Amino acid sequence: MSVEQAISGLKFGADGLLPAIVQEDDTDRVLMLAWMDAEAVRRTLTTGRVTYWSRSRNEYWRKGDTSGHRQYVRGVEMDCDGDTLLVRVEQIGAACHTGTHSCFDDRTLPAVVGDPREIG
Amino acid sequence: MSVEQAISGLKFGADGLLPAIVQEDDTDRVLMLAWMDAEAVRRTLTTGRVTYWSRSRNEYWRKGDTSGHRQYVRGVEMDCDGDTLLVRVEQIGAACHTGTHSCFDDRTLPAVVGDPREIG
């Protein structure tokens, strides 16, 4: 499968974007979620560095070019519908612009824990 | 923080939805991504079972009610922007409707692996 064949098998939303989940390859931690258009996917698949489309700035965003917190590609998978990517990375420094390693650190919501032995 | 306070701190898209990444608590595997509106988040936080909004069927979808492949909540975190959730679950059976454990199984795209020692 070529890169162009892979991209043509993806389903982008009405805005031309799909979500990319970023998981740290060494630790399996989920670091962040960001958005890619076809060109961002192409750059990610072919350059070894992760590139997104910034919805707030309306421009391509190669992670780490400003912050130094680069993401190197270890592997990319699509989901069963082809409308979400899972990008496994080697993360340099903090993935989150707030300085935490993951964007999900220390942001726990109150949730009832489900137990299959108690809840149907 | 109450459940309603938590929900009011979330940022839903123009369609009233946000993406929820689902990660298996025991293995750290990323299983799937699906969508929630405020009510799906409320049900997920308060019942111990994960509920989504189905964009294709336009209805609430409590994972496993049809398939038996239930997801029990272990914890829920939001990201730094409050526009993505990470739901850690105990997964019964296969998360993917195709029968694979994760929706990302066996769907690898061709990607150049990046090496910080070689690529700037």
Automatic annotation (TrEMBL), chains A, B:
Keywords, in A-Z order: Amino-acid biosynthesis, Cytoplasm, Histidine biosynthesis, Hydrolase, Magnesium, Metal-binding, Zinc
Cofactor: Zn(2+); Mg(2+)
GO cellular component: cytoplasm
Reaction(s) this enzyme catalyzes, per UniProt: 1-(5-phospho-beta-D-ribosyl)-ATP + H2O = 1-(5-phospho-beta-D-ribosyl)-5'-AMP + diphosphate + H(+); 1-(5-phospho-beta-D-ribosyl)-5'-AMP + H2O = 1-(5-phospho-beta-D-ribosyl)-5-[(5-phospho-beta-D-ribosylamino)methylideneamino]imidazole-4-carboxamide
GO BP field: L-histidine biosynthetic process
Details of cofactor binding: Binds 1 zinc ion per subunit.
Annotated Mg(2+) binding sites: 79, 81, 83
Binding positions for Zn(2+) per the UniProt entry: 80, 96, 103
Presence of keyword Transferase: no
Pathway: Amino-acid biosynthesis; L-histidine biosynthesis; L-histidine from 5-phospho-alpha-D-ribose 1-diphosphate: step 2/9; Amino-acid biosynthesis; L-histidine biosynthesis; L-histidine from 5-phospho-alpha-D-ribose 1-diphosphate: step 3/9
Main location: cytoplasm
Cross-referenced InterPro entries: PRA-CH, PRib_AMP_CycHydrolase_dom, PRib_AMP_CycHydrolase_sf
EC number of this enzyme: 3.5.4.19
Annotated function: Catalyzes the hydrolysis of the adenine ring of phosphoribosyl-AMP.
Protein name, UniProt field: Phosphoribosyl-AMP cyclohydrolase
The species this protein was found in: Leucobacter denitrificans
Encoding gene (name): hisI
